[in-house]
Amino acid sequence: MQPPFNWTCPYCDRDQSVTENNYSTGEIFFQARGTRGSLGLKASIIVCANPQCEKETISATIMNWGYWNGPRRFANNKPIKSSRLIPDSRARPQPEYIPKPVRDDYDEACRISDLSPKAAATLARRCLQGMIRDFCGISERSLALEVRKLRELAENDNAPRGVSFESIEAIDHVRKIGNIGAHMERDVNTIIDIDADEANQLIGLIEMLFHEWYTAHHLREERLDNLKKLAANKLRIREENTNQIDPAVDDDQVENKDL
Ligand SMILES: [Zn+2]
């Protein structure tokens, strides 16, 4: 990728255009050859342009190289492995109004989703359960029962604001992936077979619900709060103006009386 290009910082979540000032790359062409042929390493660093962040994101790609039209260069279309070195987790920064135990489970699930999808899925499901208990106020003996209860509430129009049928459907959809559904019926902490893609789908659902539930709720509260402050401020200004006008009115009356 050549700058400028659009990018979102994984630390502060700020969208930005990456320029040559905060981006650089390096290339190594290894001479030793194994069964994979001539290998090389292409690495890049992006420094976040947000002055409050300025953190580094470093990625590396292993590729084959060869001589094409004279100079040696990478076979650009065939990366053998591409990986972000730091930050080493796909976790996106989450706001503090989401309960810490829920955020911690999410962070850890992201950190291990490639290395141990089973453990990541277990954490992701616990995170999902924590959200249903905290945000929806539903606590049953299993996640399956909690989801069922949530669906009942939604059908009776009593689900917490922001909990849509679509999000409940999404939870159900993820529950149906592989063996997750069957095991979720029994115990949220049961470890089952799952691959990295499935674990990432669970994590993706959690991110969606963070946004639809907590962030939407927070923004609504914030807007209402601002509206309240605005109204109180207007009232205060009106009262101040009234107090200033009153003496003037008295003066007028005094003047009129003199006339
Ligand atoms: Zn940043």
Kindly describe this structure.
The protein has helices at 100-112, 117-136, 143-155, 165-175, 180-186, 196-258; strands at 5-8, 15-18, 23-29, 39-47, 56-67, 72-86. Helix 1 runs antiparallel to helix 2 (117-136). It has 2 domains: 5-86, no CATH class; 100-217. The chain is built from 6 helices and 6 strands. The longest helix has 63 residues, at 196-258. Bound molecules: zinc ion.
Ligand catalogue: zinc ion
Number of helices: 6
Tell how many strands the DSSP assignment holds. 6
CA(first)-CA(last) distance: 85 Å
Q: Taking all residues together, what is the mean pLDDT?
A: 85
Q: Secondary-structure element order, as H and E?
A: EEEEEEHHHHHH
